[in-house]
Amino acid sequence: MSIKTKLLTGAVALSMVAAMGVQSAKAERLWDPYLRGVNEGLAAGALPPPGVYGVLNNYWTDYSYYGANGKKVANSQLTALVEVPVVLWVPGIKVLGADYAAAIALPFDYTQSNGLSHTTGPGNLGLFNAVVVPGILSWALPNNLFVKTGLEFYLPTGTNSFKDIAEGKMSNGGLPSAMGFFAVQPDLGFSYLNGPWNLSAGFNVSFPVTDDKYSGISWHSGDEFSADYTAMYTTGNWGFGVGAEQQDQFTTDTMNGVNVHNEVHDFGMGPLVSYQLGTVNVLAEWNHALVTQNQVAGDFFDIRLLTKF
């Protein structure tokens, strides 16, 4: 497999960052650690050749809120631009027979909402939680199969959270920029890379560790399973395919220790197109939500730039 092909299919192992949630005074979660669909088009099980890589996701949403019955709630629009700069380091060493890598991301976002925010104004710009991935391991198996594991830490370093809205510290509208809690996310990815084909599935489980505390409320977000799926064919500098994402919360949120029962479920899919522009791989994706409960959803678009420094 050539370096160009590996740059096209090699995965940056992060399931970055937040899928926007909706809130009330008694509050569903604001942000999830997983940014739905952000790794579609990548090889979930493989790493690129040794080197330092830069990735920039330019992720835009046009969402509405869907209730427990799966129906859209009127006047509940959310638009957001999420910028996810990532640095991936592949030092060329082996650990337990696997290629080792590490990564860090410092995402930031702009949100604007109608009906989801407790404030009025043009919107909110701020930093999301820093994401640190100290260890990624990828094994090359027989028959063009690859398996990769990783562990992500979402640090509570964002510029503002739901606490700032609830305590009246935000007046510029939009939604908070970050989660107000610390979370851990193990990752597992599988890829079949044979000639022009990339068939991949990446799985993540997010475990909020600390609570989001504000105004006498202690909110603990539930644990979530999430996944990105890719089927892509490359010919020359072009790649074409289909991607899909899913998100399923399997433990309930709690407020002051009481179950809230607002579990999030979402599934969406759409086309993928990539182009190798010199040393930069450009991938564009569009996903449309097909099934949603207790979550904002609709259409999202992402343009990803990936290059080796």
Provide structural commentary.
This protein is mainly beta. It has a single domain (3-308), classed as Porin (Beta Barrel). Helix content is 4%, strand content 57%. It contains 2 helices and 19 strands. The chain has helices spanning 3-9, 162-166, and strands spanning 51-66, 72-90, 94-95, 98-105, 108-114, 124-127, 131-141, 145-154, 183-194, 197-208, 212-214, 217-220, 224-235, 238-249, 254-255, 258-259, 265-277, 280-293, 295-308. Strands 1-2-4-7-8-9-10-13-14-17-18-19 form a 12-stranded antiparallel beta barrel. Strands 11-12-15-16 form a 4-stranded antiparallel sheet. Strand 13 (224-235) and strand 14 (238-249) form a beta hairpin. The longest helix has 7 residues, at 3-9. It is globular. The model is unreliable at 1-28 (pLDDT under 50).
Summarize the structure.
The chain is mainly beta and about 300 residues long.
Tell me what the CATH architecture is: Beta Barrel
Please give the domain count: 1
CATH superfamily placement: monomeric porin ompg
Placed side by side, the strands forming the largest sheet appear as 1-2-4-7-8-9-10-13-14-17-18-19
The profile of the biggest β sheet is: 12 strands, antiparallel, barrel
Poorly predicted sequence stretches spanning 5 or more consecutive residues: 1-28
Shape annotation:
globular
Number of helices: 2
